[in-house]
Design a protein that fits this description.
This protein has 488 residues and is an alpha/beta fold. 42% of the residues lie in helices and 15% in strands. The chain contains 19 helices and 16 strands. Helix 1 packs across helix 7. It is globular. The termini are far apart.
Length: 488
């Protein structure tokens, strides 16, 4: 039985829609994440022996007609279609599913992703073309569904599936989260076979880069973060040290052009002993000299671990600082404090690591004054790069329910992106409008990146490292429109 995995088209005339970014949109910086969760599920199904077709429409900027043609060219008559989705694109994705069902009327179409998981009944009721939703972590749900359909079995045996039975929606029991992550095939091996690394870009990384996960779930309780709350839970499940390093080795052996690995775990550094063990093995195998890597890392990371990471090839850390106001950090349940943030920035620089700092405005307790103080702190920290975004309340998160209950959300799902696919602000707080938040982010970016001392610093870094210069020039070309104009 043939199974077709699709990352559907969305506004290709404006750019590449990064559906698997934590804030799905067409980014001004040219970002396009690998559709990793879809990739892992497809790799699991392929490992089971099924024939797999994988179509990433945003990567090739396919419109709907071209995408349907490609599916027809690549496939015979797939029995199962797996469609990734997102909040901003959900209505477009449902329309695409309808066209898909009309073209392949005997097929079974299942949706995956955070949005349908958080809005199961709403999504199923909004489309006759959707047969089911695989809730939460769906790798093995899709595998079990494929086996079930191939054997003409009963859907009620497929854990984690919600589906239509006549006019009724049936919710099967949840499927247990995957404990042994070593059983899941390498994303990089699937990428080697099915995708083109030059289609994807992560501006903070040296191009071309590849993205992987070494673990799933996050014990932090940040009220805005969608993946732990909706998909993967709050227990950090880990691949073994050997499994992770073996994938680094696979990438080294099979991707001669790859210059950097992006570890996409919500927080790679939670288990510091494991981080050190991975670093030691990378050094032992000489992989630290083959390419660099970067990761998300909370601000409780200590200096000694930073030094080890640097020695093992880590180039850059990405912390979610969000705000430099303790009341706001407490309100969003960030679990961090201002002293930790200051120490983290100091230690990272001392260890020779670059920092891409993430700031967010519009949380509970935000005022014009708190935003200004966060920007002032960002300027003092003077990290290698920084991003400023308004809070985006995605369905299924605590912050979404807070915003809904207080009537702060402006507009429907289509409003989560602007007509050109870039991120939109949907929050109107009592003391700060959506326009206020957008204007401040634009102002903060301009203030940050157009400082003389920052420009001199970037040029100095470029003189020391030509790859860094190329990365800076590429990022500036992409970002100049949002720096000089009022855009998020």
């Amino acid at each position: 039985m043939e199974i077709c995995f699709i990352n559907p088209p969305f506004k290709p005339e404006f750019g590449k829609f990064s559906r698997e970014s934590r804030s799905p949109a067409i980014g001004h910086s040219g970002v396009l994440y690998y559709p990793l969760w879809l990739i892992y599920a497809a790799a699991v199904v392929e490992k089971e022996g099924f024939e797999v077709t994988f179509v990433d429409a945003p990567a090739k900027r396919m419109d709907v007609d071209r995408c349907l043609d490609v599916i027809e060219e690549k496939s015979c008559e797939p029995k199962l279609f797996v469609l990734d989705t997102s909040t901003p694109s959900i209505n477009s994705d449902l329309n695409f599913a309808k066209l898909l069902k009309e073209k392949f009327n005997k097929s079974f179409i299942v949706l995956v992703g955070t949005h349908p998981t958080a809005t199961v009944e709403e999504t199923l009721n909004n489309s006759d073309a959707i047969d089911a939703i695989a809730r939460k972590e769906y790798d093995y749900i899709i595998r079990d569904l494929a086996i079930c359909l191939n054997q003409n079995g009963q859907l009620d045996y497929v854990k984690g599936l919600s589906y239509k039975n006549g006019g009724e929606i049936i919710h099967n029991l949840d499927r247990e989260l995957i404990e042994n992550l070593d059983d899941i095939p390498y994303a990089s091996k699937f990428i080697k076979k099915h995708l083109d690394i030059y289609d994807y870009s992560f501006p903070a990384a040296t191009f071309p880069a590849i993205q992987i996960f070494t673990g799933r779930g996050c014990p932090a309780r940040c009220n805005y973060c969608v993946y732990p709350q909706v998909m993967h839970g709050h227990i950090y499940r880990k691949r073994s040290v050997e499994n992770v390093v073996n994938e680094f080795q696979y990438i080294a052996d099979n991707f001669p052009d790859i210059k950097e690995i992006v570890i996409e775990d919500d927080t790679f550094t939670i288990d510091k002993k494991r981080v050190v063990d991975i670093c030691d093995l990378l050094i032992q195998k000489g992989l630290n000299k083959r390419f660099s890597w970067l990761c998300n890392a909370r601000v409780n990371l200590d200096y000694e671990t930073m030094k080890k990471m640097k020695a093992a090839g880590c180039r850059l850390l990405i912390p979610g600082i969000e705000s430099f106001n303790q009341t706001i950090l407490n309100n969003i349940r960030k679990g961090t404090n201002l002293e930790e943030i200051k120490t983290y920035i100091y230690n990272a620089k001392k260890a020779g690591l670059l920092v891409h700092a993430c700031y967010m405005v519009g949380n509970k307790g935000e005022t014009q004054e708190t935003m200004e103080k966060t920007l002032a702190a960002a300027l003092r920290f003077n990290t290698d790069t920084a991003q400023f975004f308004p809070l985006i309340p995605y369905p299924g998160t605590e912050v979404y329910f807070w915003a809904k209950e207080n009537n702060y959300i402006n507009g429907d799902y289509d409003k989560y992106c602007k007509p050109d696919g870039t991120i939109n602000c949907v929050l109107n707080l009592p003391n700060l409008s959506a326009d206020d938040l957008v204007d401040f982010c634009a102002y903060a970016r301009k203030k940050y990146y157009l400082r003389i001392e920052y420009i001199v610093y970037r040029l100095w870094m470029g003189l020391k490292n030509f790859e860094d210069l190329k990365r800076s020039v590429k990022a500036f070309v992409k970002l100049k429109e949002s720096i000089f104009k009022r855009k998020i």
